[in-house]
Write a structure and sequence with these properties.
By secondary structure, the protein is of the alpha+beta class. The chain is 32% helix and 19% strand.
């Protein structure tokens, strides 16, 4: 593991020496110049297909936390954050490099943009969305699709504190109490969403979705907001999904078009929230 200076920690760790090389290579891609910010998010997502999951090592089995830049392995939220941070880094400099990315990644991936400890990392999608909207990194497009009928669902989000044993770092009482304080802020939380009916109708949602839109699929779990999330990419007239697949444990470009994916999994999906990188 390679360590280099950073703002929030005395050092920021990189997963391996190849991380900086890969980040610089991605940011130097000539195709990026002609793409809009959202299209750049989709471009980077495609480049990361095949990367394995780090959910267990980074969250479930980690007893503490160190700010680590890892461009080779991902959790569902770190995949999304990485693609946004790469797109932001590209726009931040005439010659963007891994330093720009590390700064943007910390800003997107951690509460208030600062990595301090385990609980400063986002554990709930709603927390990630709210914080990044407030700080201007993303916008919520859910309620602004012409011709659709988006709705709002009220949930109190406290799933993790009821499954404390699943995350080793929460054995620490300080971490656990801070998590519960965070969950208090999501009591009766209003979640906007596009209905399954609109999502499954290819003539209604598909034409209005943009390359690089970020989706969060609502779960029927009464105290959890989302279990699946990822990035929408266009292949001709089809709208496809890139996500850190929970079943394949890798970043996957799903074969089914988005509307068919929702249809196949309709019993465990209760609509979708759509987020976009800020322009």
């Amino acid at each position: 593991m390679v360590s280099l200076s950073a703002k929030a920690y005395e050092s920021v760790a990189f997963h391996c020496e190849k991380d900086t090389v890969l980040i610089n290579t991605l940011l130097a891609s000539p195709e990026l110049n002609s793409l809009a910010p959202g299209e750049r998010v989709a471009f980077f997502a495609k480049k990361l297909v095949g990367s394995p999951s780090s959910l267990r090592t980074e969250i479930l089995d980690a007893e503490s936390h160190e700010f680590t830049v890892n461009i080779h392995e991902f959790t569902p939220l770190s995949l999304i954050s990485t693609c946004i941070a790469l797109a932001q880094a590209y726009e931040s400099s005439s010659a963007p490099n891994w330093r720009d990315f590390a700064d943007k990644f910390e800003n997107v991936m951690y509460k208030k943009g600062v990595a301090t400890d385990f609980v400063s990392r986002f554990l709930y999608p709603s927390d990630w969305i709210s914080d990044n909207i407030f700080r201007g990194n993303v916008t919520d497009a859910t309620m602004y699709f012409d011709g659709l009928n988006p709705k709002k669902k009220e949930k109190s989000i406290d799933y993790i504190s009821h499954h404390r044993d699943a995350i080793k770092a929460l054995a620490d009482s300080t971490n656990f109490e801070r998590l519960k304080m965070l969950e208090m802020g999501f009591r009766n939380h209003q979640i906007p969403y596009i209905t399954n009916g609109d999502l499954m109708n290819s003539s209604r949602f598909n034409p209005k979705a943009k390359d690089g839109d970020i989706f969060f699929l609502l779960t029927p779990d009464f105290n959890l907001d989302s279990r699946e999330m990822g990035i929408l990419v266009r292949e001709g007239n089809q709208l496809l999904i890139i996500q850190q697949s929970p079943s394949k444990e890798a970043v996957t470009l799903e074969e089914l078009p988005f509307e068919n994916y929702v249809k196949r999994n309709v019993k465990r999906i209760q609509g979708a929230r759509i987020i976009r990188i800020a322009q």
